[in-house]
């Protein structure tokens, strides 16, 4: 089976989708001739022409607004916002138009579109290239939100998102683009030494939106994570010696609550790890759901390990988001509670 990094897997997903359906179009800032700032669309314009893979003006609201119109009239746009930090000018189009279209038209129109965005830190991008805004989208009814952690999942989930009849926010952890890392704090730019790439099948395949994956079995504590933090959680479990069961959520909405509840009822403990800030982060929703569905099985309070409640600190980037040491200390504290 071919081995690809996440950039290659995402590119392959768009290639497969465009090859199967002439209605799939790809556009955004620098995605055509240049192939995207992270090279995710490299070669697509040359293969499919400038009518199906093309550059857009530097106007996020224009990019998303055009995609909503295209989707309403039968196309399946897959647009790229160059960094998740740039999406805010398009937020009104996403919330007021894309997410509402099916409901406000009573099903007469839908918005089968994907908005791809590199997310998270770890590349020394500073405040305007490192944010993790997933909670802003999970709050909006009508949107689906996906965060893959590996190349195999990235391809299968992206094809599923493109084929979905509703708008999907597809957040791509940029720290994982060129190969998952091993999660250890002292190797921020080293590819994951054990598996620098992942096995990604050729051709068409999909993964269901709304189905989590158990990445590490355990009986002591359930760790809920997504994206880059899956690897941090794995490293923390190894270093701390805690028998942690690590669940990779993969899609935040729809959420695989069944897998979460089954695991927490088994372990009796739960730690949520995400890179975004603490207050009103998606971890708060996860903690509330665990409390509601697993209250009589819990042996300790649900804990969260997250980024700081500050603007993104360029000089302290590797202290800002959770590392194995901070996650490991929380795992031990939960086990001792």
UniProtKB/TrEMBL annotation:
Segments passing through the bilayer: none
Molecular function per GO: branched-chain 2-oxo acid dehydrogenase activity
Transketolase-like pyrimidine-binding domain segment(s): 4-179
EC code: 1.2.4.4
GO annotation (BP), single: branched-chain amino acid catabolic process
A Pfam family the protein falls into: Transketolase_C
InterPro entries per UniProt: THDP-binding, Transketo_C/PFOR_II, Transketolase-like_Pyr-bd, Transketolase_C
Cofactors named for this entry: thiamine diphosphate
Alphabetical UniProt keywords: Oxidoreductase
Protein name as it appears in the record: 3-methyl-2-oxobutanoate dehydrogenase (2-methylpropanoyl-transferring)
């Amino acid at each position: 089976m071919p081995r690809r990094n996440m950039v290659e897997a995402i590119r392959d997903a768009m290639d497969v989708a465009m090859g199967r359906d002439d209605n799939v179009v790809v556009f955004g800032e620098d995605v055509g001739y240049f192939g995207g700032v992270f090279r995710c669309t490299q070669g697509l314009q040359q293969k499919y022409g400038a009518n199906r893979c093309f550059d857009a003006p530097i106007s996020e609201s224009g990019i998303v607004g055009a995609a909503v119109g295209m989707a309403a009239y039968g196309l399946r746009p897959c647009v790229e916002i160059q960094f998740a930090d740039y999406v805010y000018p398009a937020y009104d189009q996403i919330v007021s138009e894309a997410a509402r279209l099916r409901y406000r038209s009573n099903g007469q129109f839908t918005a089968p579109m994907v908005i791809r965005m590199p997310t998270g830190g770890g590349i020394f991008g500073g405040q305007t290239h490192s944010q993790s805004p997933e909670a802003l989208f999970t709050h909006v009814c009508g949107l689906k939100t996906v965060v893959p952690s590996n190349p195999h999942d990235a391809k299968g989930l992206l094809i599923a998102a493109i084929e979905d009849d509703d708008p999907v926010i597809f957040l791509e952890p940029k720290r994982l683009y060129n190969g998952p890392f091993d999660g250890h704090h002292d190797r921020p730019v080293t590819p994951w030494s054990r598996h620098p790439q992942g096995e990604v099948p050729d051709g068409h395949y999909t993964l269901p939106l709304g189905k989590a994956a158990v990445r590490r079995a355990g009986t002591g504590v359930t760790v809920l994570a997504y994206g880059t933090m899956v690897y941090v959680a794995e490293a923390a479990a190894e270093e701390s010696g805690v028998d942690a069961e690590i669940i990779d959520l993969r899609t935040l909405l729809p959420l695989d609550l069944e897998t979460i509840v089954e695991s927490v009822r088994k372990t009796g403990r739960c730690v949520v790890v995400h890179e975004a800030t603490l207050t009103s982060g998606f971890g708060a929703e996860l903690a509330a759901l665990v409390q509601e569905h697993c209250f009589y099985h819990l042996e300790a309070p649900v804990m969260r390990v997250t980024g700081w409640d500050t603007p993104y600190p360029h000089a302290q980037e590797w202290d800002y988001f959770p590392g194995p040491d901070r996650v490991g200390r929380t795992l031990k504290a939960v086990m001792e509670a």
